[in-house]
Design goal:
Largest sheet of chain B: 7 strands, mixed
Structural class of chain A: mainly beta
Oligomer: heterodimer
Order of helices and strands of chain A: EEEEEEEEE
Shape of chain B: globular
Largest sheet of chain A: 6 strands, mixed
Distance between the termini of chain A: 29 Å
Chain lengths: 110, 121
């Protein structure tokens, strides 16, 4: 059972937008920064968003992050077939003194 | 460019130990830490712990306390994770990731390619 809660799957047609939610508590998301990772099939995860909404160099602006209270959201606009992957949220949990992850969300492009 | 290159796949028997390495290049090793994570087949990511590249301080996840040891060798820019008393449910891909260990957040900005550890009798 993951500390952070994500929907198992989301889907949309090419060109459309999807949002992935990540729900936590005051000991993790509520008081710490959230990051997001993309894991393409058979590969290592890749950092997409850090510190709630910062995109590393090379990450297209189709990917965006936001946080409100104890929840965070990853948005993907202009969906492409290459975006089919698993997406994970992560943050620090002050009560556990540990890095915690969501269970992952599979994005399917219809 | 920053690279983390991990050691090759391992097959171990239950009760044995495994040690996975992660060799860093392209950045100053001592200015970042390394987190170790694992991913069981078809499952999500699980954080195992973090080690400072500067002074070797560690922070282990509660699930692995007493069974895991993380070390670094700054002369070779290599981080290691050793897991003991292996069980079948330790079968997973093990990843290292560069982690500055920032307060209040998680930034795993570069990852190794992963090392498959299979535990089977």
């Amino acid at each position: 059972q993951s500390v952070l809660t994500q929907p198992p799957s989301v889907s949309a047609a090419p060109g459309q937008k999807v949002t992935i939610s990540c729900s936590g508590s005051s000991s993790n998301i509520g008081n710490n920064y959230v990051s997001w990772y993309q894991q393409l099939p058979g590969t290592a995860p890749k950092l997409l968003i850090s510190e709630n909404n910062k995109r590393p160099s090379g990450i297209p602006d189709r990917f965006s992050g936001s946080k409100s209270g104890t929840s965070a959201t990853l948005g993907i606009t202009g969906l492409q077939t290459g975006d089919e992957a698993d997406y994970y949220c992560a943050t620090w949990d002050s009560s556990l003194s540990a890095e915690v992850f969501g269970g992952g969300t599979k994005v399917t492009v219809l | 460019q920053v690279q983390l290159v991990q050691s090759g796949a391992e097959v171990k028997k239950p009760g044995a130990s495994v040690k996975v390495s992660c060799k860093a290049s392209g950045y100053t090793f001592t200015t970042y830490g390394i987190s170790w994570l694992r991913q069981a087949p078809g499952q999500g990511l699980e954080w195992m712990g973090w080690i400072s590249g500067y002074n070797g301080n560690t922070n282990y996840a509660q699930n692995f306390q007493g069974r895991v040891t993380m070390t670094t060798d700054t002369s070779t820019r290599t981080a290691y994770v050793e897991l003991r008393s292996l069980r079948s449910d330790d079968t997973a891909v093990y990843y290292c990731a560069r982690d500055p260990g920032v307060a209040r957040g998680v930034i795993l900005d570069y990852w190794g390619q992963g090392t498959l550890v299979t535990v089977s009798s």
